[in-house]
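Lab notebook: predicted structure, single chain.

Context: the supervisor wants predicted structures on file for every construct in the current expression panel, including those that have not yet been purified. This is the next one on the list. No modifications to the sequence; it matches the entry in the shared construct table.
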Amino acid sequence: MASVGGWQLNGFGTWAVERKADGQLIGNVGIFTAWRDLDPEFGEEPEMGWIFAAETHGKGMASEACNATIAWIEANLQPTPIWAIIAPANEPSMKLADKLGFERLHETLYHDDPTVVLKRPAW
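Prediction complete. Output recorded below exactly as produced.
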């Protein structure tokens, strides 16, 4: 419901990602407002997130889907910074965030777990 509601209220949201070869659901990617209590600006600007099946790691599928999402964002939304949070141990997502233009701001605790706060500048 939250995903559908994001599209209704904000004009943006997340997409399911299917593998082209067989239509298998392999992930989810998009932007949303999570209203996290991490930085003063964090709740005011959208957050980007992605999650993909382990079987897809290292095959470029997450990169393809995330780049398509960034292209959609830049074509359809007003320029605005985009936030992300990633567990520091999640090296594949940290590498992908770097490729997508996210800058590492700092590390903090979120729900008692180490969390890296990242921000992609407005385009």
